[in-house]
Amino acid sequence: MGEILDGAVTTTRLYWRTVFGISAAVALGTQVAGSTVTGLWFRDLAGLNKLSDPDTADLHEVLDAFRKSMGSLTVASLVGLVGSIIASAMLTIVVSRAVLGRPTSVGDAWRNARPRLLALTGLFLLLPVLITAAFAIGLTPGLAVAAASDAGLSGDLEGGGAGAGLLVLGGFAGMAAAAWVWVRFSLAAPALMLEKQGVFTAMRRSAKLVKGAGWRIFGIQVLAAFIVFMIGSMAQIPTSLIDGIVTGESSMDHLTWTSLIINGIGSAIGSALALPITAGMTALLYMDQRIRRESLDIELARAAGM
To answer: What does the buried/exposed string (b/e) look like for 71-109 if buried means 16 or more CB atoms within 10 Å of the residue's CB?
Structure first.
């Protein structure tokens, strides 16, 4: 785990111009687009301010606010997905070349990554569906019992209790299944990029490489997620303080252009620092598993002229 993390950090340090050039451009582009969408979507703050007083808000206003929130969230998520795809593709190329001691420019990374972006998009869209489906399957028995007993309408406490118990157990089972799916296909992206595989072939390659090492890979991926969370939190602390001083404490004030710009700067900095860590650790995990199972180190040594 320590070596994988050190490899990602070392790659970032040695090739910082390329790495941060990619991550900063992607983070800034996605954040500007996301903040612009949010600002335009919620430009009618007068209507939203009514929700701060439950006595004056009617059902129509609540539904309108929900529609705006979901619409903005959906568009922002799609923008973030595009940024994640581009950053993951280009940074995987950079890390794979760095293993051989070969620097890569931003232009070279883009030329090598561009032909694989469509396939990587399909993978990034499919994996969340599979993870969500695994979690939903775990909840199905509890939801079925609760619906069959009609506990919410008839007051059947026994049936409602059984349904609630199954929901809790199903929730844990669903989380375990979702985690299993996540780990099983966690190496599909570098397999797709570096082996030029299709979506389903890359998923099968990932499952083969992960087999027998699931707990180790799970631990390393959780560590990467924790590091990303900490980086994002630390980047947001100073901008959140500034935002609180400038815009005040009202939740609706945080939808103004001033607030969006201030918080967007913190989010962009956090993303620019976190993207190389996540992409680097995933790419190095993929290579590590190939070295352990397929003697990739010999091929890498030959390629490096050693």
So the answer is: ebeebbeebbebbbbbbbbbbbbbbbbbbeeeebeeebb
